[in-house]
Amino acid sequence: MDYGMIGKIEKAKRYAAEPHRFHFESFTVRVDGENNQHRVAFQSGTWSCDCDFFQSRGVCSHTMAMEELLKDMLQQPQSS
């Protein structure tokens, strides 16, 4: 039995139970929309999406859904 790995698994479970430890800084996600697939990206506190609505408004249902899904786990933009 690999006791070192058992310790790592237990530590991972503790971390996962404390989501405040995690802060997403950047990622890209494919969102399966009702009509098409879209790429949503998060980089340095800023969202982007390849859908037409986002291109004209700077926000869309795909980015809002990701914000709701991840809530407090996202890096907040730095205030100047």
Detailed description of the structure:
The protein has 80 residues and is α+β, with helices and mostly antiparallel strands. It has one domain. It contains three helices and three strands, in the order H-E-E-E-H-H. It has helices spanning 3-16, 52-57, 61-70; strands spanning 26-32, 37-43, 46-49. Strands 1-2-3 form a three-stranded antiparallel sheet. A hairpin with a 4-residue loop joins strand 1 and strand 2 (37-43). The mean pLDDT is 88.
User: What sequence of helices (H) and strands (E) makes up the elements?
Assistant: HEEEHH
Strand % is 15-25%
Overall pLDDT level: 88
Stretches where pLDDT is under 50 for at least 5 consecutive residues are none
Kindly name the structural category.
Answer: alpha+beta
Described by its quaternary structure, the protein is single chain
Gyration radius, in Å: 17 Å
Structural key phrases:
80 residues, alpha+beta, elongated, 3 helices, three-stranded antiparallel β-sheet
Summarize the SSE layout with pairings:
Layout: H1 3-16, E1 26-32, E2 37-43, E3 46-49, H2 52-57, H3 61-70
Short description:
By secondary structure, this protein is an alpha+beta fold.
